[in-house]
Write a structure and sequence with these properties.
The protein is an alpha/beta fold and about 230 residues long. It is about 40% helix and about 25% strand. The protein has eight helices and ten strands. It has helices at about 10-20, 45, 60-70, 85-95, 110-125, 150-160, 200-215, 225-230; strands at about 1-5, 25-30, 50-55, 75, 100, 130-140, 170, 180-185, 190-195, 220. A six-stranded parallel sheet has the order 2-1-3-4-5-10, with helices on both faces. Strands 7-6-8-9 form a four-stranded mixed sheet, covered by helices on one side. α3 (about 60-70) links the parallel β3 (about 50-55) and β4. α5 (about 110-125) runs parallel beside α6 (about 150-160). The longest helix has 17 residues, at about 110-125. Bound molecules: NADP nicotinamide-adenine-dinucleotide phosphate. NADP nicotinamide-adenine-dinucleotide phosphate (NAP) binds near residues 8, 80, 105 and 106.
Length: about 230
């Protein structure tokens, strides 16, 4: 496949390296200097690309995805923190018969963790002897807090147990690529479920798997749709 990578930061470079290892061609690796408001994402520059992978910054993602979809390129987007613009971009993808797969977290283990967390929340619904909380830790350079994954986690567990509060604490320090914990703390005991990413490689592998899957699909998908079956 010919893959356009938008964003030449830590994730963009990790996806580019893995794509080449897996025999794909990096059609273009587009950094911020040439791409204010998505201006580098022209039909000419994108011609021949099968799919794009976007890992930039919250303030840049919506413009990039919009330009890629307008050019008819399926987009895998891993950028977090642009929820406010998501509905508008989703409507555009649907109107233009495009394809977008967005995930706040491309680790397969995280999605299994999220399913287990929802199950734990169901089991503990109504158990007032426990207080619940979510703790997430990321490296010092991560811009958004809480993380996209922590917000997804809170949405899932709150859906499973609407009567309970799930406050999130975010730590931004050091170099950790991403740790999430859901804990239930009581007077005598604690129940905790956690996921720890050891490196960015798992995110890059998941994003590349999504890029291999998306062409040929139409509409808006999550990584969960790809892993566990598309919504009916
Ligand atoms: N979904 C997942 O699994 C996952 C995993 C890890 C990270 N993330 C998210 O992915 C995003 C990127 O993470 P990262 O670790 O790669 O961050 P990073 O190292 O800071 O890289 C972001 C890159 O995007 C560039 N950029 C900003 N605006 C741009 C534009 N308009 N066009 C092209 N490039 C642009 C930045 O360039 P300048 O430095 O020149 O501004 C920077 O090189 C973040 O939102 C992060 O939260 C998601």
């Amino acid at each position: 496949m010919r893959i356009v990578i938008v964003g030449s930061g830590k994730m963009g470079r990790a996806v580019a390296a893995l794509a080449e290892q897996r025999g794909h061609t990096v059609h273009a690796l587009i950094g911020s200097a040439e791409n204010a408001s998505g201006s580098a994402l022209t039909a000419e520059r994108l011609r021949g690309a099968d799919v794009a992978v976007e890992f930039t910054r919250p303030e840049a993602a919506a413009a990039n995805v919009t330009r890629l979809v307008a050019a008819g390129v399926p987009v895998v987007c891993g950028t977090t923190g642009w929820e406010a613009e998501r509905a508008e971009v989703t409507a555009l993808v649907e109107r233009s018969d495009g394809a977008l797969l967005h995930a706040a977290n491309f680790s397969v283990g995280v999605h299994l963790f999220l399913r287990a967390a929802r199950q734990l929340a169901r089991e503990l619904a109504g158990r007032s002897e426990f207080d619940a909380f979510i703790l997430e830790e990321h490296h010092a350079a991560k811009r958004d807090a809480p993380s996209g994954t922590a917000r997804v986690l809170r949405g899932l567990v709150a859906g499973a147990d609407p009567a309970r509060e799930f406050p999130i604490t975010s730590i931004r320090a050091g170099a950790t690529p991403g740790t999430h914990m859901l804990a239930y703390d009581g007077t005598h005991e604690r129940i905790a479920l956690s996921h720890m990413a050891r490196s960015r490689s798992g995110f890059a592998a998941g994003a590349l798997a999504a890029a291999e899957w998306l062409p040929g699909h139409r509409g808006v998908y999550t990584f969960e749709d790809m892993l566990f079956g598309e919504p009916g």
